[in-house]
């Protein structure tokens, strides 16, 4: 199984329950905005502790409330491309990538840096500061940084949202290529089923 | 300026510098705790940190005397184990200044830590950073302007410290007689007016410089939105 998730999380006042059982290479999690898709990703990455349930990814148990298992986020090896990118503002783009690479030292890279830079077309952005990038550029750098952390699995939060159709199409093609080339489970969150139809081998609906 | 007056300025600078150096890590740790953690007793800690700001300085000096005087718990322990005496010593003046400056430093640093986006810390964690490493690589560098601003503010406050110092460290020429104490002494001395004028002008220049620098650092760091004062 690539993703085996059955959790209840409570990021705010409201409880959210999610159940995902998928052995697909790319699993899409779709549902209306605000339904709690990002909370599920955060729980898988270890940034949000579920109040109950269990999470395992690629056969590894990351969280199990009953057995008292809660692997800290830095040991989960998630490649998480946040919807809000979260690039480090005090580091240039290249240094943001360095950050991921340095912490992944000793682990087997899933893709070479040169190839990430080429695939995501960010060669011209490396010397820039994050706050000078456009929305689409920020998102590509965030995906690059996630890929370079030698992850065991990828979490992509709304990678195509708020991009113009042409850019969305390009990024979509790229995700497709990553899916076929990388041998790690990927989970993609989207509010639009249409966006993910051609990418996902399995679609899980929330809400 | 006479050489005695220069010595007073140098003593003041030394006392303030040491006071800031000693309280900086403590203030930052407190600021981080208050900005990032929720724990029982937080309100009490917050109040304790701010106490020197609202207490009459002479009371703070008296409390220091009780704790750090020769007869005090900490004071006796320091003397027996290390032969350190803080009362009537310039290091005592530095301690008094440090305690009085602490709340202002904590406030400045707390603001700058709160301004660091916590989601960036989360991002660092998913990339493989332990919470300590995430602190060192994200929170700490992004809050440096607040540290600098807090340090300058603490320095300015230390330069002006009077009440707690004269109570705890006394007014000893060449040892604990910092600028404000020297000005006070000058006012009590017939014919001391010229010296008072000179020392007061130096006080104003030093304090204003530190304050302006501190405000500038905070404004630069937070886009002109926040103020320390």
From TrEMBL, chain A:
Signal sequence, start to end: none
Domain ABC transporter, chain residue ranges per copy: 2-207
Pfam families linked to this entry: ABC_tran
Alphabetically ordered keywords of this record: ATP-binding, Nucleotide-binding
Domain of life of the source: Bacteria
UniProt feature coiled coil, ranges: none
GO molecular function annotations of the record: ATP binding
PROSITE patterns (alphabetical): ABC_TRANSPORTER_2 (PS50893)
Record keyword Nucleotide-binding present: yes
SMART domains: AAA
Protein name stated in the entry: ATP-binding cassette domain-containing protein
């Amino acid at each position: 199984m690539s993703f085996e998730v059955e959790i209840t999380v409570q990021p705010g006042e409201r409880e959210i329950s999610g159940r995902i059982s998928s052995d697909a290479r790319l699993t899409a999690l779709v549902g209306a905005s605000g339904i709690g898709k990002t909370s599920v990703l955060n729980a898988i990455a270890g940034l949000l502790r579920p109040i109950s349930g269990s999470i395992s990814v690629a056969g590894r148990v990351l969280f199990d409330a009953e057995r008292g298992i809660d692997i800290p986020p830095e040991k989960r090896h998630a490649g998480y491309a946040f919807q809000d990118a979260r690039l480090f503002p005090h580091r240039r783009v290249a240094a943001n990538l360095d950050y991921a690479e340095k912490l992944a030292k000793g682990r087997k890279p899933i893709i070479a840096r040169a190839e990430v830079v080429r695939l995501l077309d960010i060669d011209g952005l490396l010397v820039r500061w994050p706050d000078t990038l456009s929305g689409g550029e920020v998102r590509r750098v965030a995906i690059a940084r996630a890929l370079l952390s030698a992850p065991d699995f990828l979490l992509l939060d709304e990678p195509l949202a708020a991009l113009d159709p042409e850019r969305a199409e390009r990024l979509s093609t790229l995700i497709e290529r990553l899916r076929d080339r990388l041998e790690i489970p990927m989970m993609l969150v989207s509010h639009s089923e249409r966006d993910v139809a051609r990418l996902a081998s399995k679609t899980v609906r929330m809400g | 300026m006479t050489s005695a007056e220069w010595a007073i300025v140098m003593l003041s600078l030394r006392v303030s510098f040491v006071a800031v150096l000693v309280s900086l890590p403590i203030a930052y740790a407190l600021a981080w705790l208050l900005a990032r953690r929720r724990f029982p007793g937080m309100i009490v800690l917050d109040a304790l940190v701010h106490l020197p700001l609202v207490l009459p300085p002479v009371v703070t000096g008296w409390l220091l005397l009780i704790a750090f005087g020769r007869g005090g718990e900490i004071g006796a322990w320091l003397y027996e184990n290390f032969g350190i005496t803080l009362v009537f010593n310039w290091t005592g003046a530095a301690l008094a200044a440090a305690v009085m400056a602490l709340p202002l430093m904590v406030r400045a640093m707390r603001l700058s830590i709160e301004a660091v986006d916590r989601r960036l810390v989360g991002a660092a964690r998913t990339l493989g950073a332990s919470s300590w490493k995430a602190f060192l690589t994200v929170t700490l560098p992004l809050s440096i302007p607040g540290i600098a601003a807090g340090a300058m503010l603490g320095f300015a406050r230390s330069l002006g410290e009077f009440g707690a110092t004269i109570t705890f460290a006394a007014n000893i020429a060449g040892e604990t007689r910092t600028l404000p104490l020297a000005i006070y002494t000058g006012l009590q001395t017939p014919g001391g007016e010229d010296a008072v004028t000179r020392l007061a002008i130096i006080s104003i220049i030093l304090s204003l410089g530190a304050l302006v620098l501190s405000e500038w650092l905070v404004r630069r760091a937070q886009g002109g939105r926040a103020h320390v004062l």
